[in-house]
From TrEMBL:
Keywords: Endoplasmic reticulum, Membrane, Transferase, Transmembrane, Transmembrane helix. The keyword Transferase applies. It comes from Clostridium tertium. One of its GO terms (molecular function) is N-acetylglucosaminyldiphosphodolichol N-acetylglucosaminyltransferase activity. This is UDP-N-acetylglucosamine transferase subunit ALG14. NCBIfam families: PssD. It comes from the Bacteria. The chain crosses the membrane at residues 82-101. InterPro entries: Oligosacch_biosynth_Alg14. It is a single-pass membrane protein.
Length: 164
């Protein structure tokens, strides 16, 4: 059975990631997210926490370096076959690590982005094996993206390309 890493920053990105729970339940999977003072995750699978990052903080680079090291440790320990990300910044290191190790990368652009890209989406668009947008107008920005309308339950069949 394939192992899947689900990763997102906190807040809306994480809420969108948790909409993939039906897919999580079908595979050996684990979650990576940021550690914050508000942790309302009720899930039985493995959950790893990284430092919350904000690119406007003075210690941003230090936090990112710590996260890169911790992300690499998690990746080498868990050995996922696929990484699925809904963004944002904290997810970039594992997405790059996945591609270095020739693993599949699926990125889902934020539902909140109707006609402009996220920074994470812009950075990962060229690397993702599958790149989903949730609004048709986003195909103007990401012409090779996959648009299935609404949310994730509609794309589960497409995502299962890695299950075999």
């Amino acid at each position: 059975m394939k192992k899947i890493c689900f990763i997102a920053s906190t807040g809306g990105h994480f809420d969108q990631l948790m909409m993939l729970k039906p897919i999580m339940d079908k595979y050996d999977s684990f979650i990576i997210t940021e550690k914050t003072s508000y942790q309302a995750i009720k899930d039985n699978r493995k959950i790893y926490y990284l430092k919350q990052v904000n690119r406007h903080e003075k210690i941003f680079i230090l936090k990112m370096l710590v996260n890169i090291i911790n992300t690499l440790k998690i990746f080498l320990r868990e050995k996922p076959d696929v990484v699925i990300s809904t963004g944002a910044l904290v997810t970039i290191p594992i997405c790059i690590i996945a591609k270095i190790f020739r693993k599949k990368l699926i990125f889902i652009e934020s539902f909140a982005k109707i006609n402009s890209p996220t920074l994470t989406g812009k950075l990962l668009y060229k690397f993702a094996d599958q790149f989903y947008v949730q609004w048709k107008d986003m195909l103007k920005i990401y012409p090779k993206a996959i648009y299935k309308g609404g949310y994730i339950e509609k794309v589960e069949k497409d995502m299962c390309f890695f299950a075999n």
